[in-house]
Amino acid sequence: FDDRDGVIWFNGELVPWRDANVHILTHALHYGSSVFEGQRAYRGEIFKLREHSQRLIDSGKMLGFENTYSVEEIDQAAIDVVKANGLVDAYVRPVAWRGSEMMGVATKGTKIHLAVAAWEWPSYFGEEARLKGLRLEIAKWKRPSAETEPVHAKAAGLYMIASLCKDAATEHGYDDALMLDYRGQVAEATGANIFFLKDGVLHTPKPDCFLDGITRRTVIDLARQRGIEVIERAIMPEEMAGFEQAFLTGTAAEVTPLCEIGEYNFVVGDVCKTLMKDYDDLVNRR
Ligand code: PMP
């Protein structure tokens, strides 16, 4: 992914893609001291840009980062990098990390660096999966408690188990994994939140040990605007036997239906299709 044309916003400058490098002794590489964002531009405009920039700052604060850039500067960096690469529909990836100013578990003496990249990334799961629904494996790793890690930070370190779960799922022929939490409750997929439908009501886990996604909150609003009741609560995996529809939400995933999670099956139904369309209309400002 590093050998391509384009520019990346790197500590305040637009540098050629191939030159946007860090040193081997970067603190973040050794100790996971990095936070990131993922946002999408639709028809040239980044959806909920301010919320993503603010979340990057908030994630950094949870890791003790001093605030090097303001929310306005991060917004502007994202806007500039989309434009400089001539992109219209794009995925945008801001990342902030501790650099190579010193080595050790302690962080004193490191500086916070910021980069923003952007590229074309049409559909996270592919069109066929979006029509038929994805198949999820129930992962063997569990989301940790809020006492174990700063679970609400979009921090690189928390993605180690997500990558392990995603790889295991695809090796076993699935599209993605559903992660349970430390209590055994349904949590989320490896990079997206989850919703279920039963008797016309949406049920989604309370985000008390994972990311309360910006798409998740958007879809809750869209559902309520349609008069659909949404309940945030603890969901045990066995309850999935009684759910009729299920879908994922996320910036990359958007609204993507599920047809199978482990032994449980779902239909790609009306509510799921309506919310896919409502989300698509909203992000494309129709
Ligand atoms: N959970 C995880 C683990 C994620 O990586 C993401 C994507 N950022 C989400 C949920 C969904 O968050 P959002 O809707 O803000 O993209």
Description:
The relative contact order is 0.13. This protein has 2 domains: 7-119, 2-Layer Sandwich (D-amino Acid Aminotransferase, Chain A, domain 1), CATH 3.30.470.10; 127-283, D-amino Acid Aminotransferase, subunit A, domain 2 (D-amino Acid Aminotransferase, Chain A, domain 2), CATH 3.20.10.10. It has helices at 27-31, 49-62, 71-84, 127-132, 159-171, 214-225, 270-283; strands at 7-10, 13-16, 34-36, 39-42, 45-46, 90-98, 112-119, 134-138, 176-180, 186-189, 193-198, 201-205, 230-233, 245-250, 254-261, 264-265. The protein is built from 7 helices and 16 strands. Helix content is 27%, strand content 28%. The chain starts with 6 loop residues before the first strand and ends with a helix. Helix 2 packs across helix 3. Strands 8, 9, 10, 11, 12, 13, 14, 15 and 16 form a 9-stranded mixed beta sheet that branches. Strands 1, 2, 3, 4, 5, 6 and 7 form a 7-stranded antiparallel beta sheet that branches. With 286 residues, the protein is of the alpha+beta class. Bound molecules: 4'-deoxy-4'-aminopyridoxal-5'-phosphate. Its EC number is 2.6.1.42.
The CATH superfamily of the largest domain bears the name D-amino Acid Aminotransferase, subunit A, domain 2
Would you give the CATH topology of the largest domain? Answer: D-amino Acid Aminotransferase, Chain A, domain 2
Q: Count the helices. How many?
A: 7
Look at the structure and give the mean pLDDT: 97
Tell me the Rg in angstroms.
19 Å
Order of H and E elements: EEHEEEHHEEHEHEEEEHEEEEH
Whole-number total of structural domains? 2
List low-confidence stretches.
none
How much helical structure, as a percent, in the residues? 25-40%
Shape: globular
Label the structural class: alpha+beta
Largest sheet: 9 strands, mixed
- Sheet-strand content, in percent, reads 25-35%
* CATH secondary-structure class of the largest domain: Alpha Beta
Bound molecules: 4'-deoxy-4'-aminopyridoxal-5'-phosphate
